[in-house]
Amino acid sequence: MADNNPDGGLSADVFIMEDKLSKIRSQINSKLENQKNLAIILSAVEENMEEQKNEKTPVAYFVSFLSLLDQCIKGDNIVDKNLAATTAYFLDIIFPFTPKPLLKGKFADILTKLAPPLTHPESEAPLVRSTIGALESLLLAQDHQQWISSGNISPKRALVGLLELSFDPRPKVRRRAQEAVNKILTNPPASPSPNHVASPICGELSLQRLATLLEERGSKRSNNKEVNSSMIHCLQLITSITSANAWPQAQIEPLCDVLLEISKTSDQFLVSSAFAAFDGLFSSMSNVIDVEKFTKVLDIIFDLKPSINDGHLAASWLAVVAKALESFSTLEPNTCLSKIPAVLPIVSQYLSSDSSDIYISASQCLIAIVTQTIPDNYLLQPTANNGISAELYETVDETITFIAEHVEKELLSIKYQHATKEILELITAVIMKLRSRCNPDFLGILETVGEWRTSETDNFPHNKEAEDVIAASISAMGPDTVLGVLPLNLTGGTQPGRAWLLPLLRDNIRVADLEYYKKNILPLVDFFETKINDAPNKEAMHIKIFQTIVDQIWSILPPFCDLPKDLITSFDDSFAASLSDLMYARVELRVPICHALRLLVESNIAYSEGAVADDLLIQEQISIESSKKHLEYLSTKASNMLSVLFNVFSSTVPESRGFILETINSYLQIISKSDLEVTFNKVCGLLKNSLDQEAENQANKKDDTPKLSSTMMDLIVAMAKYVPESSYNALFSIFSSTVSLPNDVLLQKRSYRIIAKLAETEEGRRSIVQFIGEIENVIVQTVDITHNSARPSRLTAVNLVMDLLPESDLHFIPSILQEIIMSTKDVNERSRELSYQILIKMGHRMNQGGLIRNSRVPGFGEDTPDSQATLIEYFTMVSAGLAAQSPHMISAAITAISCLIFEFKDNLPVETLVEISSTVELFLTHNSREIAKSAIGFVKVEVLSLPEDLVRSNLKELLGKLMRWSHEHKEVEEAIPEEDRKLVANIKKTRNRAKKQKEADTEEGTTTTDGQGKKFVSAYEEALYDSDVSDDDMSEDESTNNRQKGKNKAVNQFIMESGDEPLNLLDRQTLAHISSSKPKKFGKQDMPKEKIATKNGKLVFKDLDNDNEDPLANKGSGIDAYLDAVKQAPVRGQRNKLKFKKSKDNEEDWSDSEDEKPQPRSSNKPKVNSKSRISKPKQKFKAKKKL
Q1: Which residue of 509, 793, 1044, 1157 has the smallest Cβ count within 10 Å?
Q2: The pLDDT of residue 718
Q3: Distance, CA of 735 to CA of 331 (rounded, Å)
Q4: Does pTM surpass 0.85?
Q5: Which domain holds residue 724?
Q6: Is 430 helix (H, G, I), strand (E, B) or coil?
């Protein structure tokens, strides 16, 4: 200890012990009896140590608690079980820090004292668990010499006791014993052998116990539940031993036999435990010295190969094989790689099984073997840097060739036809693993699978799996390789067309050659567009198919632009010019072209920044240095490309140009600063001209077309983040001039966004600090001319300014405080959220201190003295709003105070809290409901946030003021004339019935709604509004509720209005205006909506001219229609009256009245009771709660 602490301080171990004991000491006043008891015992022991003037060292604690345990045990009996459990708990804490020489020297004495709690039949679980922990530390302290000693009291005998406790029926005791065994075997004493000296006895005892239980299970015909539980406990112990790499080599083969035998059982818990034991056995062998041992295990497993139709054991054996080879590959990948040619044919035999479970398991096993046993770096080309030698490359190449030949010649044969789906899934996984190394070995497989998919006449049942194979091939080997084997054949000829390849190409291309698209795929567009233009009937089905093919060809352009390998040579000026012309001329092509242009930049930026740095195979195809050169090349094209994009952006309606702005943003990231400055100046000039022109034409302009100035401002906002520092003056000049335009809300919103964009970069934030004085002045001067719709953008700018506010500009806080307070009552949720954030930031800034120059606050005189910035001063400023003349301002001030009290309650003195609370509580009796409601909200925050004694002292007065608002209905009832009170009582009853009906109708939906939970802007709003009590839950007439019990559910009824004349409820003709069905005017929105067909997430539009899609086709033949008409026709009944069939089904239900028209029955139509009264319409709108 002294060696570790040359300064004489305590060791790290002692600090850890002291930390644990200090936590126990702190529980002296705990409400939990067990925690309090621990603290009391520790306190008594430490007092005794102090009386004896002993230092509080691990040895002192060890002696004290061991002697205390000895007092609790007399002979073989435990005198005080509670004290014994507490003492053992402390021994478990102290033993790991006790010096090992002491534990070794006193081993026999200590073990004798620990034995009774472990062996006594009445020992409770807490006592046994703690004693096991102490015994674990005791055994870990013993050396090799003591472990090999043979005596009645020896470490081996103690370990055997732990093994017996590993089968204890009590879960926590059993788990603690198994953990102790694992830790002891994981940390063997120093000896010539790397394995623990006790590992043979552990393996022998546990395996013998497992074999006995297995035999017992087989002999019993029923009641195997207890035996199964004991077997699971034994398997858990074996897992603890194997995971410690302590299983003796001589016992491996018997263990595998037993585990595989257990895997035959139908008990899933037993099988799972057996697999866990296998997993522990495999994962423990992680050293080079274990290679021979692991090889022997693999040989044993393959020697135990079951029959291919063994339904119980085959699937389990395959899972063990997959896990074993996966573990072996991490230990010795080269050896494991050499075993693949021998393993694959053995496992593949199970694909021929008649059981679907077996051949599915075989497929999953093969997938695991190929994907987990071949390291990714083994697939690289041999170079001096990656450590791949030519010999290893050849070995991997031979393995890949073997896999391909085995799949093509064996697995794709008729023998495995029933498992075609699983084999195709295996091929997909192998191709995705081997990537570019599949070429050329897997081309034959690709051709075969492609023919299966292409042949429409054979009705191949696994088209999806075949497409997955082709998609994986496109991703791994490239589109040029796949199309070389499976050409599209879209221009005619004898070969079958493969238009179905186009969606696969779109979804799986990456890191391809853009030139291949330009030369081989894009020319197809001209071919089909010529066909479309020359067709006489533009609505013909084949013309629509041609148009779909054209759209799909264009949809392939963006994937080809996702990190192309040949960007510099393929994306030349002519190709860029052709894309630009198409964006001008073809509106429908703007989306795919912009997407492609954006991907060119973003994919190279992400790749150059290391987005896929762990994918070594992609780095072989294109290096990071190449992507950086691509970006340099694109930056030379960025200026011209931005000009085109700006023009296209200006000519596109605002609702449909978001994707263009994203593309512009991508090129702004790579354009050179000089080119960007020139472009920015051009846009600024266009903005000035458009503003001047719009000012001249403002009187004559009456249309709603978007203004050019708004479009230019969008572009300036986008560029604000990237412009060089030399353009900041112009940028802030634009901000100050456009934000003050009183009649243009769109420009105001965009102006404030300039500040938000600038704040996204470090240079922009520095520029804001540089111009912060001018920004503050502009914000203060434009308070009165800001439109409400621009308020969120303005508050965002203010929020950012508060983050950067220097100490010399604290006058900005009182200058805009009133606006921020008023914004807490804004209808826009975003505005309210920002106002809370700003209020809190202001509070923190004022709490930091500083000098407020009040002479610079608008409305204050120049001789106004300065004041110190404090939190109390800030609350004084906010409280000034309580003296306002407007109820709206007073309500907003109370709301702001509530928010700030919730946030700063711990930073304010009690006197200030009392003063603020008493002031706000005065408004509880205000006549304005808006003010009173905010004051009630403050009371909620006060009760939840302030100290309990503070609320208690004011509770009587507070409740008196609150109860004023609980008797409003009584005053209303008293004011109603006597003759009208019966009407009010009826209205009240009707309201109760409507409320009950609403609750019954929404009973199912309520659970879902409640489960979702309420959403609030802030924690303050949650504290204020998260209540189960609704504003409508007022006290009702209980007698009315009682009379309603047992009645049927009320029926919704509606009042039909006839013009502007209000309905007189006392008129006898009122009943004629009451309907049980909701009255509505027939409008466009009431027309029945036809369901649009979809396929694979795409809309499918049917051809109206297609004879095969006759809308009456599903109505049956003409004869059926005639028979239906005869059945539905009226017939003459008695007295020569016409009878109409009323049922829409085949029931013979006829009406005797000529005036009655047949109506369809509706089970949803409510019945109207003659005694029905007018029900209050359901409340569909309720004032949204806001701060």
Answers
A1: 1157
A2: 94
A3: 65
A4: no
A5: 672-696+705-804
A6: helix
